[in-house]
Amino acid sequence: MKNLIAALTACLAFAALVSGCGSEEEEPSASEVDTATQEEPTAANREPADKAVEVSMKDILFKPESVTVKSGGAVQWTNDDPFEHTVTYESGPGEKFDSKTVAGGDTFEQTFTKAGTVKYICTIHPQQKGDVIVE
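^ thats the sequence. predicted structure below, dont judge the formating
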């Protein structure tokens, strides 16, 4: 009987020792999770809802030639050529617009409020055409 009591005492002592040490495989509590590694969208990496659609003026072309925006959305053209271009209304719904000359590296932005297809042209290079589809 003494051996049985000694054995039980030893088992209980061992069990207490093991359970008190904890396991390396335990799940961390919510407060211990490293939030720096979680990929949550932040204001810095989220696209603004009202960001303009971008069009490049390059090699005497509008790139892309056709873009789509929601009503109230804007398009921003950037002249990526070393010479001047224009962005000039040709036809379609909404107000007429004309950027005048846009020098290399400069931009022009236009907001579109009427649904339909607006065609535009570079008056310096008449073969340079594009359109904005407004939804």
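The first strand starts at residue 53 and ends at 58.
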